[in-house]
Amino acid sequence: MPQREFKAVILAAGKGTRLKSELPKVLHPLFGKPLLMRVLDTLGGLQAAEACVIIGHGREQVTQALAAYEADYTIQTVVQEPQLGTGHALLQVRQKLADWQNFTGDVLILSGDVPLLTVETLATLLETHQGTQNDLTVLVATMDNPFGYGRVITEGHTVLRVVEQKDASEAEKQVQTINTGVYCLNWAKISPLLEQLSSDNAQGEFYLTDVIALAVQAGYRVGLSHLDDPDEVLGVNARTDLAQCHAVLNERTLNRLMAEGVTVLHPASTFIAPEVRIGADSTVLPGCYLQGDITIGKRCMIGPHTTMSGVVEIADDVKILQSVVRDSRIGAFTNVGPFAQLRDGVEISHHVNIGNFVEVKKTRIDHHTNAAHLAYLGDAELGTDVNIGAGTITANYDPVRDIKERTIIADGAKVGSNSVLVAPVSVGENASVAAGSVITKDVKPWNLAIARGRQVEINGWVKRAKGITEVTS
Ligand code: UD1
Ligand code: CA
């Protein structure tokens, strides 16, 4: 951990023109979470005293997203308007934040569009910077295809400057050491140099990268910190980068899960967000997409083709086949699917069976209960040992008052196939509902409720209708 106090600045004011989007670039999701929040999450692993996010383009949306974000360090924002480049962005901190003016520690500079950096990398950068007593340390990587990145120009071991792709000469474009856009700097020494930047370059912007040459000229100690895995510095500038970031983060997550004892049968078709936790000896089959605050127990079998999102908690020994689960909890030894949907606050206990084409919404189901085929259970409460026949519907919606009503089905109750339970309604303990009933009144315990037309037979009706005269029976 760093010896000197440090603060962080995250550059997040740019428009992200190349994404061609109405959404500010830093709010584009990476496995469901905005790029900026992924960067803030990483920063959370270090002990920053404070972070300052530079906002500009789409700042109302970015401010809103930041307000909802919980961090255990102070986050403040500074507006950059207009956005005249990365150097101009950092200059805003110097000019607008009074309490930074006398800050004598180091400042870690990150970009809101570089989301894959690890805590370890940033910790190494800080250690290198502080250990070598640099005034400015640039995090660099070596890339086979450095196109688009700023190139780090050195002479022997001495850093001279960084040149942007658009300003680079043919010879400079051959340089494979790139600027990751992540820096650590002695604020008191380096930040005054921001006042000297000019916009005399191909993009007409005030480049933060020009501070490197200025620092060298001023005689400050400028050094590099090398990153082994160039995937970490992938920046999101276009949609293709977003796809690549997903691929890299996914691979990282799947490798972690496999190391933790999870079988991932076909990584190429399996997508799992980094926050997902899965117990050992569970298997994730092809075609799964798990994104959100998801915990899955041991010895579970998930997939193929299963989607999970929101807050999902799954106990041990659960099987979920070809299904969709959102914001739900599932107990041990429960089977779900194929083709089931559980959503919006479902709570299922252990040893439950939710079969094909069953939709369950905001419903609690106690242990050893079955809804094996073709049903809708919404806003309901099911006890233990309940059986729901095929085609049962809880009619929860009152269209006149535009509200949802509840259905209670007590322990041991059996609901016959193709029944409609019109809420609010309850079926008592061990009661039975005859198949095809439309239940509008509460059913008492142990009773049988039949609510359908009685069967009537008319002798010889078909023959008469067809004009056949000799009626024998
Ligand atoms: C920048 C670096 C480049 C480096 C690359 C690594 C400069 C001039 N170049 O290029 O050397 O290889 O990152 O990813 O710094 N931003 C603002 N205000 C502005 C402009 C940008 O806040 O006026 C923010 C953006 O929102 C973004 C970050 O700064 O989060 C980087 O800006 P971007 O335009 O993406 O720079 P690159 O061209 O990627
Ligand atoms: Ca960028």
Structure description:
This protein is 18% helix and 33% strand. It is α/β, with parallel strands linked by helices. It folds into two domains: 6-233, Spore Coat Polysaccharide Biosynthesis Protein SpsA, Chain A (Alpha-Beta Complex), CATH 3.90.550; 261-449, UDP N-Acetylglucosamine Acyltransferase, domain 1 (3 Solenoid). The longest helix has 21 residues, at 239-259. The mean pLDDT is 96.
Give the proportion of residues in helices: 10-25%
* Secondary structure category: alpha/beta
Main beta-sheet strand count, sense and barrel state: 23 strands, parallel
Radius of gyration: 31 Å
Apparent shape: elongated
Q: What is the residue-averaged pLDDT?
A: 96
Stretches with pLDDT under 50, minimum 5 residues: none
Number of domains: 2
Which key terms come to mind for this protein?
473 residues, alpha/beta, Spore Coat Polysaccharide Biosynthesis Protein SpsA, Chain A, UDP N-Acetylglucosamine Acyltransferase, domain 1, 2 domains, 23-stranded parallel β-sheet, seven-stranded mixed β-sheet, 9 helices, elongated, binds uridine-diphosphate-N-acetylglucosamine, binds calcium ion
Short description:
The chain has 473 residues and is an alpha/beta fold. The protein has two domains: 6-233, Spore Coat Polysaccharide Biosynthesis Protein SpsA, Chain A (Alpha-Beta Complex); 261-449, Hexapeptide repeat proteins (UDP N-Acetylglucosamine Acyltransferase, domain 1, 3 Solenoid).
